[in-house]
Structures are given as structure tokens and as C-alpha cells.
Amino acid sequence: MNPWLMLALAIGTEVIATSSLKLAAGFTKPLPSLLVVLGYIASFWLLSQVLLRLDLGVVYAIWCGVGIAVVATVGVLLFGESLSPLRIAGLLAIMIGTILLSLSGKGH
Asked: What is residue 16's three-state secondary structure?
């Protein structure tokens, strides 16, 4: 499978797991708690497969940067969290850095 597609899937499963943490209410709700555990297992397995073919620094930066931005967006859209101009600027800085790192990296 294409490592970039696998990275996108790793990010997606990580976002589901992280977002489910809020819904799990300290692991007192079974379904969201299960999504947390399974999501992180899937995410780290996919990430480990991606790292067999792409550079660690680039992959990890993209995984973290995109994950942060998407989780922040989920927080605003699904959980009603605030979105200040400073928060927007921070997210844009993360995304710009992520793009620059991805453009500079090479696969093996």
C-alpha cells in the first residue's frame, strides 16, 4: 500500500482515538473507550509501517502537525471549543511547518 495513504489512515485513526478520549469520560463509557484503544493501536501500527519506507522526521512532523490541526477542528466543530485569532495563527504555523517539512523529505 502507498505509504502516504497509510500515513493518512494513521492520522485519521489517531484523530478518532484522540477525539474519543473526550467522549470516553475517563474511560467510564465503553464504546468511546473502545474507540480510543483500537484507534491508537491502528494508528501506531500504520505509523510503524509507514516508517519502513519514509523518513522518521518528515513522517512524525506530518502525523503530529496534521493530527493537531484536525483534532483542533474537531474540538471546535463537535465540542464547541473556542477558536481565537491566536489559536488560528498557531494552527496555521503548525500547518505551514508541516508542509515545508513534507516538501523537504524523501522516501527511502
From this structure: helix
